[in-house]
Design a protein that fits this description.
single chain, alpha/beta, 2,3-Dihydroxybiphenyl 1,2-Dioxygenase, domain 1, 4-stranded mixed beta sheet, 3 helices
Length: about 120
């Protein structure tokens, strides 16, 4: 198992975003600076830091991502996220490797991709 770590300058707001906007679950919280988020397919960690993650602008400008979430029904996820006011970078579209892929930003500016993975 591999667990990614997302750095945040406000861990309470980040936990709120991932739980209440994206519908993930809080796996654990350690003191006031570290937390685990369970996505259904896996887990990632949040870590409180003093300064904005330096990769945020680079990732956004280069069309990269911080995290990628496979999902079974991307279009339903789009509707849900839009109803919760989540900021979209790209609308749902097909790619060579996924169906209905889209991207959003979290409360800190991290780029998150979602898509239905082609299994051919």
């Amino acid at each position: 198992m591999v667990i990614a770590q997302i750095r945040t300058t406000n861990i309470e707001e980040s936990i709120d975003f991932y739980i209440n906007k994206l519908g993930f679950k809080l796996e654990f919280s350690y003191r006031d600076f570290y937390a685990g988020i369970e996505t259904g397919n896996g887990t990632f960690h949040l870590k409180l830091v003093d300064n904005k993650e330096p990769s945020i602008d680079f990732v956004k400008q280069g069309g990269h991502f911080h995290l990628y979430f496979p999902t079974k029904d991307a279009l339903e996820k789009v509707k849900d996220l839009k109803s919760k006011g989540v900021k979209f970078l790209t609308e749902a579209h097909d790619t060579d490797y996924s169906k209905n892929e889209f991207s959003i930003v979290d409360n800190q500016g991290h780029t998150l991709f979602f898509g239905e993975i082609n299994e051919d």
